[in-house]
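Here is this case:
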Amino acid sequence: MPLKNYTTDVSAAKTVSEIHLMLAEHGARQIMFNYDDKNHVISICFSVPAPNGEQAVKLPANVPSVQEVLRQQKKNPKIQNRTKIDDSYEQAERVAWRIIRDWLSAQLAILETEMVTVQQVFLPYFMNRAGQTVYQLYENGSLPFMLE
């Protein structure tokens, strides 16, 4: 099955704008966009109210990973309509941000129902003062977890 949103023609800029509005409507503060050297948005940072005060969150878009998935799917003979898959960087960027928008929309809906907390949804993306996320700290061994 092709990647979700693989045929989108909605620009990354429009999707990022939709995400911005969605976050603002759900109480996010200090929304900021990080760009690469080619003026592509690579992550969205924002703060949210949490039990211990404002918490910074960083949502990255890993466009090169999405592009690689599109490339692999375009070559996969088991995927229907694989010839219609656009594996360009621009399409991967559009797809990546649409996937993030869809994920965020679902997470915010679950938060609204109070089935989960802000921490449960965004913990891997919580950011410290040095700009590192909890996930990044875990990956580099700064947050060891042991299952017993």
Notes: The chain has five helices and three strands. The chain has a mean pLDDT of 93. The longest strand covers residues 41-50. Residues 12-130 form one domain.
